[in-house]
Each structure stands twice: as structure tokens, then as C-alpha cells.
Amino acid sequence: MLRSVIVEDEKHSRETLKNLLEEFCEGVEIIGEAASVDEAIHVIKKEQPALVFLDIELQTGTGFDVINAVSDMSFDVIFTTAFEQYAIKAIKFSSIDYLLKPIDIEDLQLAVEKAKERKDQKEYQQQLKVLIQNYHQPDNAHRNICLSTSDGIEFIKVDRILYCEANGSYTNFYLTDGQKLVVSKHLKEYENLLSDQQFMRVHNSFLINLFEVQKYVKSDGGYILMNNNATISIAQKKKDEFVERMALL
Fold first, then answer.
1. What distance in Å separates the CA atoms of residue 147 and residue 27, rounded to the nearest whole number?
2. Cα–Cα distance between 194 and 123 in angstroms, integer?
3. Quick one: DSSP state of residue 25?
4. DSSP helix/strand/coil, 131
5. Which whole number is the average pLDDT over 117-137?
6. What pLDDT is recorded for position 249?
């Protein structure tokens, strides 16, 4: 049985999640509940659960306050939240599961199954640490991002990324040290995550770090030369925006 704790400040939400888990998630045992940061810390330390369903926004603080206060994070976390917000981006950078309310049953089942199948707890604890660091780091360039590859999870600084290239349902990451990582997610997902600051989707196949652009060549239809001398195609409709964005750096 997956011994679990629910941390949620609204009683109705706690009961709803508990009912969903009992009806649709076999092998999950609810051993404790909490409605505040202090209660959550107490229950987690006392019960030593394998899984914590953790609401991001609590009346007495945040779910991140709970994680910060528990030194032995030998448990999985599935975050829950009622709306997309700044905290969600920090979670996505860390590749940790979260559920939007109202909770979708299939999403819940998938997140629970991943927790059951987790093999490398040490690697997961590193993801949680990255999450806490990112939450307190408003500047994307200095954040860490967790990238799932066939060899495991790579933890890299965002500013080490030169550019990303679409590769079917995968994304190729090219780093400033010459390393190439293949990640099993679509480029669109990383466009949503990275493009609010120094990254821009300049072509259907390319998302680039604008700080790593060497020059823009107008001949031959136009292309971008990166600092590693890679040539990047640029879509006709993206040229004006690209020039404007570069002028602001």
C-alpha cells in the first residue's frame, strides 16, 4: 500500500480527493490529513508517508513551506492547485507532477502510478531541491531545469542552453559546453516554459537562447548564427520580432 497524506486547507477539497483516491486509485492508503503548514509538518514527520498530496496555496503559507521544513524528504509529492500561476512554472522546470482542480481522474491515476513506480528516490529528492530553488529565483536564466533523458534526469542551468531543436515527439537540447541531450517531450512544451525571457521560437523546429546569438545573416533567405557556429533557420513571419527582441537585449 502507498501510505499517503493529504494537505489541503478546504475540508470539501480534502474529502473530494480522498473519495477519488479510494474509488479510482487502488493501493493508496490515506494515513493522515492536514489543513495548515504546521499540521502538515507534524503529520508528515509523525506518519512518514510515501506520498503527499500537497496544495500549493494554504491559508497559513504554501506547500513549499512544508517541503522546506521537512528535512527528510523521503516521500513523493503530487502538488494540487486551483489555477495556473507562477508556482506552476517552478514545478514544470523541476519535472514534478501536479494536478489542476477540479482534478481529472486520469491525471490523478497517472500521477499515482508514477509515484508507485519511482525507483531513484535520491534523484527525485534533487528535483524537489531544484523546485525550492526555482520558486525563490524569479530570473529564469539562473534557474535549473530538470530534463528527463534515457539515462536519467539531467539538472542544468537554463543559461547553459544554446538552442532546442524539434525531433518529432522529442526535443534535442544543445548546450554551451557542446553537450547534446535528447528529451522525450515536444518542443512546444519548452517554448511555453522558456520563451518569456531570453528564449524565442524562431522557426517551427528551433527555440533559441537570444543571448547566445552571434549574428543574423540576411542573405540566403536569412538565418541565425549561434555562438557555437550552428546555423538556425528563421521563419519569414518571425524576422521582425526577432530583430526587435535582439535590439532590447
1. 29
2. 23
3. -
4. helix
5. 83
6. 83
Q: State whether residue 194 is helix, strand or coil.
A: helix
Phi, psi of 94 (to 5 degrees): -95, 0
CATH among 3.40.1410.10, 2.30.110.10, 3.10.20.70, 2.40.50.1020 for 144-247: 2.40.50.1020
Contact assessment for residue 198 and residue 210, using Cβ atoms and an 8 Å cutoff: yes
Domain map (residue ranges) of the chain: 2-135, 144-247
* Buried b / exposed e along 45-54 (16+ C-beta atoms within 10 A): eeeebbbbbb
Q: What is the DSSP string of 40-89?
A: HHHHHHHH--SEEEEESEETTEEHHHHHHH-S---SEEEEEESS--HHHH
Q: Which CATH superfamily is domain 2-135 in?
A: Response regulator (3.40.50.2300)
Average pLDDT, the chain: 92
Query: Are 2-135 and 144-247 equal in CATH topology?
Result: no
Measured over the CA atoms of residue 60, residue 123, residue 91 and residue 18, the dihedral's sign is negative
